[in-house]
Amino acid sequence: MPQFTLTLHCPERAGIVHAVTSFLVDHGCDIVQHQQFDDDVRGTLFLRTAFSCDGVEADELAGEFAKVATQFEMDFDLWDDRPPRVLVMVSKAGHCLNDLLFRWRAGGLGGEIAAVVSNHEDLRPMAEAAGLDFVHVPNTADTKHLAEQRLVELVDEYQADLVVLARYMQVLSNDLCAKLAGRVINIHHSFLPGFKGAKPYHQAYDRGVKYVGATAHYVTPDLDEGPIIEQEVLRVDHSFDPRALTAAGRDAEALALSRAVRWHCEHRVLLNGNGTVVFR
Question: Where would I find the Formyl transferase N-terminal domain in this sequence (predicted)?
Fold first, then answer.
């Protein structure tokens, strides 16, 4: 039977779960997974329900469910089981792209990679070896506006539901962040303490860090401060030179990013103010 996923958040009150499950039962749906979280601090309920239902389309079900949503002041989305289409953006580092490609080809990414876009040519062989289109879009201070226009065109051309910045070393403009709000995931290194600027792993080595890590988050106009989806931390010690720290950091980046992409594609991530609720 066709599979669907319903996600929602709304003010906490009695009867919400009963209303959702009654609606699904009345429409001949079979619930296969249900998760919810009551945020008592914000007074908000978050819910994700996966179900199967025959002889109905997602738009039709959503139209019917809108009556329930209005009654409980719900903000909801309802998806069918079509894998979201993913546009991956890269620069020169290939570890995150390589990991995403492996998981996609193994059927474990949750989404369908549509194409790879880059401001450099370095990773063209990797993308084309996977049978994907590789689109080179130069991005300099003089061409940034044109590059972002081209990116929007590519999102439409490939019908991309999600853009993944897999170590894409360019900052998106505020206008583009707003246009693609909630549809762009970025990965960046994060240390305790944080190191900014050039050669962060060398800085970490100089400070004798004991952990390296990475953060996957939604992109907002506030650089590297968008809602966090996933973080990965690895313990290191004095024996890790800059090369070993870099290798450990790459592992953390690949793990955090792939999990964030999969959870987003499986509709497990709900925004909660400046944070997220992730139903794993």
Answer: 85-261
- Place 184 in a pLDDT band, splitting at 50, 70 and 90: very high
Burial annotation 14-29 (CB, 10 A radius, 16+ → b, else e): eebeebbeebbeeeeb
Average pLDDT across the chain, whole number: 95
User: Which CATH number covers residue 184?
Assistant: 3.40.50.170
Q: Which residues partner with 156 through β-bridges?
A: none
Quick one: pLDDT band at residue 193, thresholds 50, 70, 90? Answer: low
Q: Beta strand 162-165 with 85-90: parallel, antiparallel or unpaired?
A: parallel
Q: What backbone phi and psi angles, to 5 degrees, belong to 258?
A: -65, -40
Residues 113 and 20 placed together within one structural domain of the fold = no
Of the candidates 78, 91, 145, the one whose C-alpha atom is nearest the C-alpha of residue 119 is 91
Return the number of other C-beta atoms located less than 10 Å from residue 260's C-beta: 27
- Residues 21 and 96 both lie in one domain: no
The catalytic site residues sit at: 224
- Exposure letters 174-197 (e unless 16+ CB within 10 A, then b): eebbeebeebbbbbbbbbeeebee
Same domain assignment for residues 118 and 161: yes
pTM listed for this prediction: 0.94
Domain co-membership, 118 together with 70: no
Closest among 71, 65, 66, 74 to 25, alpha carbons compared: 65
Alpha helices of 58-187 — where are they, by DSSP H?
58-72, 95-105, 124-129, 144-157, 174-179
As for how many domains the chain has, the answer is 2
- Span 212-221, average pLDDT: 94
- Residue 195, pLDDT above cutoff 80: no
Q: Phi and psi (nearest 5°) for 239?
A: -80, -10
C-beta atoms surrounding 109 within 10 Å: 23
Distance from first CA to last CA of the chain, Å, rounded?
Answer: 23
